[in-house]
């Protein structure tokens, strides 16, 4: 089987779409899932731009709304009209030819049920930071204008983060809910600059969320402990620090956070209900309120939550040591000292990750890639390799050499190309219950020099080799996303997009800044190239054999007949009919429309609870086979079977049977040719000739 690859130019609206910015703005320099900004149940995405090229006017960002269907192959970002998304214009400062827009979802800061996001607008001159601005934009239900002027935020729709004249904002991230008041909080990292553009005396600030009372600008010097507080460090010239939520490290119900020192130290600060002073000097942390992390090496350059790696109920975190090593530190209820020297980790409290190569440049949680209940993480080795490390309950040594991963404890991802530019958790792209990862290689040459590629590697329960060559992905274990042409640098930034079209599969974001484009790629149940029965835009009729075969209906109302084997059915749009012979099928995806699953066997019992992860998008089950057939189900199965409705219709003859598990069904009587049963939101319409067996409330 040849490598499965998707050329991003082939996206047609049904499998994803392209987001085009203005050339040469380098739109796609930064991409992020934004949560659900407009509260319609679909995840949205945010795309930032960069002005590294002269004469660019890239003080722009764009928000694109998710929706169920009807995407065009290409969305021209400057043409967003407020209904499908909107443009965010930065504030001119005389250096528009060299500005970056870094974007990030930050949760729900004002507690109105709509997700909010942050934009950091940084200005460069001769490769030095000379100024920066930060903005928080609130989500809302509807009525976005096509363009939002970030300079016009008035407190009701968001606010400007006000710094001293010489200060720059290095980062704005979501901090979780530090004081557990029901509002997400922010962590802002900034620094002062001297006349040579060098950053020193870096500070960080916690901004507490609240329901109302935000002004048009937020002065970070006016915190009193009740609305937020300032974090002070000792170290001068502490540029390149990083900030991140840490989850709940000590398990007290309050989110904690990490502040990267940009030198030899980072700090973990514990959340609490109240009692914050206006200023917290990080050197005063005593173990009960947080602690210092000392690397003693080349400096700490990146920090991230790692989830719960050892499954003890406490969140863990990962710290990039800035050289060849990173460190995983385990959370616990108590017993932290004021200072933890990372070299003293012994396996029970955390462990060292040693790359032995070009240095570790990025760290990220990976979700649960192998589905064992322990969170995993991904480390960018800084050269041609990245590494996924599996969590486990115990048995960690004090040091783990990443080259020794053997497939059972993690694995290496080898690009063999121009170096890995970005790594991220991808969510569950193929809907198999295992989290996946995405790796960007912006200097790959599949379609010309620096066309760029991104690689999605699927999670699975077992069977990982010690090393996965990204060129060997075949659709069953992952796939490649190729930039369109030379110089695109696709994969510069990669991210999960959440579920943009709410079909139950997580989607992907890939940035290609050198052509000012980004791409949203929809998840689906299969990415294997070889389709035995490829569909057309019209109405297709396919009849399989007893071998394992794949059916892809595409548009139109299609009829797909399986004759046994591990068949896979992806019917796409339209009102489709899918027939299976038994329960040895691989998956059934009815897609959009009103779709029918037919049972062709005799004496077959389709127990939906056993196969519900492998069936999606079905609104009707037909029991007309050569003999009597049975469907066994729960109310939750009915709800999970279709993303479009909570009503399942079951047709059949005398002798066919439906068994409803769990108590609490209500008999709604016979209406026309169907007997109605309900439980909560689940509605069953069963043909009057079919025998029913339900525990009635």
TrEMBL record:
Listed Pfam families: FG-GAP, HemolysinCabind
Sorted alphabetically, the Gene Ontology cellular component annotations on this record are: integrin complex
Could you tell me the Gene Ontology terms of the biological process aspect for this record? cell adhesion
Keyword Transcription set for record: no
Return one GO MF term: calcium ion binding
Q: Which UniProt keywords apply?
A: Glycoprotein, Hydrolase, Repeat, Signal
Key word Glycoprotein present: yes
The protein's name is FG-GAP repeat-containing protein
Species of origin: Nitrosomonas ureae
Q: What is the lineage of its organism?
A: Bacteria, Pseudomonadati, Pseudomonadota, Betaproteobacteria, Nitrosomonadales
């Amino acid at each position: 089987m040849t490598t499965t690859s998707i050329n991003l130019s082939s996206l047609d609206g049904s499998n994803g779409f392209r987001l085009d910015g203005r050339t040469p703005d380098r739109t796609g320099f930064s991409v992020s899932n934004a949560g659900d900004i407009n509260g319609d149940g679909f995840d949205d995405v945010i795309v930032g731009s960069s002005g590294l090229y002269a004469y660019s006017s890239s003080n722009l960002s764009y928000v694109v709304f998710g929706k169920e269907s009807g995407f065009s192959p290409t969305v021209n970002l400057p043409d967003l009209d407020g209904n499908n998304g909107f443009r965010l214009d930065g504030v001119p400062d005389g250096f528009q030819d060299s500005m970056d827009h870094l974007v990030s979802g930050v949760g729900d800061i004002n507690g109105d049920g709509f997700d909010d996001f942050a934009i950091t607008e940084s200005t460069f001159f001769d490769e030095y930071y000379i100024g920066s601005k930060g903005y928080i934009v609130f989500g809302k239900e509807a009525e976005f204008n096509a363009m939002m002027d970030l300079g016009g935020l008035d407190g009701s729709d968001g606010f400007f983060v006000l710094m001293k004249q010489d200060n720059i904002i290095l980062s704005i991230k979501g901090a979780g809910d530090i004081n557990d008041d029901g509002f997400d909080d922010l962590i802002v990292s900034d620094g002062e600059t001297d006349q040579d553009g060098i950053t020193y005396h870096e500070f960080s600030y916690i901004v507490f969320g609240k329901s109302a009372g935000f002004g048009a600008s937020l002065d970070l010097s006016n915190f009193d402990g009740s609305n937020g507080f300032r974090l002070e460090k000792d170290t001068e010239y502490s540029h390149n620090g990083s900030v991140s939520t840490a989850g709940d490290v000590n398990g007290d119900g309050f989110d904690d956070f990490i502040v990267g020192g940009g030198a030899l130290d980072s700090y973990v600060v514990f959340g609490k209900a109240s009692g914050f002073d206006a200023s917290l000097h990080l050197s005063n942390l005593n173990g009960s309120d947080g602690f210092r992390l000392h690397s003693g090496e080349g400096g700490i350059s990146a920090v991230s939550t790692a989830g719960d790696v050892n499954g003890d109920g406490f969140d863990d975190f990962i710290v990039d040591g800035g050289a060849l090593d990173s460190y995983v530190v385990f959370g616990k209820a108590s017993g932290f000292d004021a200072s933890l020297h990372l070299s003293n980790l012994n396996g029970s409290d955390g462990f060292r990750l040693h790359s032995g190569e070009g240095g570790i440049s990025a760290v990220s949680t990976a979700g649960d890639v192998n589905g064992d209940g322990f969170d995993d993480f991904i480390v960018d080795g800084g050269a041609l390799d990245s590494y996924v490390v599996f969590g486990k309950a115990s048995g960690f040594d004090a040091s783990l050499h990443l080259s020794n991963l053997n497939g059972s404890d993690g694995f290496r991802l080898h690009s063999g190309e121009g170096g890995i530019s970005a790594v991220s958790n991808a969510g569950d792209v193929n809907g198999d219950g295992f989290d996946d990862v995405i790796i960007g290689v912006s200097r790959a040459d599949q379609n010309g020099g620096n066309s760029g590629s991104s690689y999605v590697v699927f999670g699975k329960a077992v069977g990982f080799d010690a090393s996965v060559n990204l060129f060997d992905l075949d659709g069953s274990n992952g796939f490649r996303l190729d930039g369109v042409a030379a110089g695109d640098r696709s994969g510069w930034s990669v991210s999960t997009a959440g579920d943009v079209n709410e079909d139950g599969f997580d989607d992907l974001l890939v940035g290609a800044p050198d052509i000012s484009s980004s791409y949203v790629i929809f998840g689906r149940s299969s990415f294997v190239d070889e389709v035995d029965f490829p569909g057309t835009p019209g109405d297709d009729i396919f009849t399989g054999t007893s071998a394992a075969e794949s059916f892809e209906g595409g548009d139109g109302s299609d009829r797909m007949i399986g004759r046994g084997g591990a068949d896979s059915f992806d019917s796409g749009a339209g009102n489709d009919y899918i027939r299976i012979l038994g329960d040895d099928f691989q998956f059934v995806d009815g897609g959009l429309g009103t779709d029918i699953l037919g049972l062709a066997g005799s004496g077959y019992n389709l127990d939906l609870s056993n196969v519900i992860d492998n069936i999606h998008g079905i609104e009707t089950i037909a029991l007309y086979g050569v003999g009597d057939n049975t469907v066994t189900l729960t109310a939750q199965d009915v709800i999970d079977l279709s993303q479009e409705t909570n009503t399942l219709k079951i047709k059949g003859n005398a002798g066919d049977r439906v068994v409803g598990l769990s108590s609490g069904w209500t008999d709604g009587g016979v209406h026309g040719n169907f007997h109605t049963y309900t439980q909560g939101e689940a509605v069953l319409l069963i043909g009057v000739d079919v025998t029913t067996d339900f525990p009635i409330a």
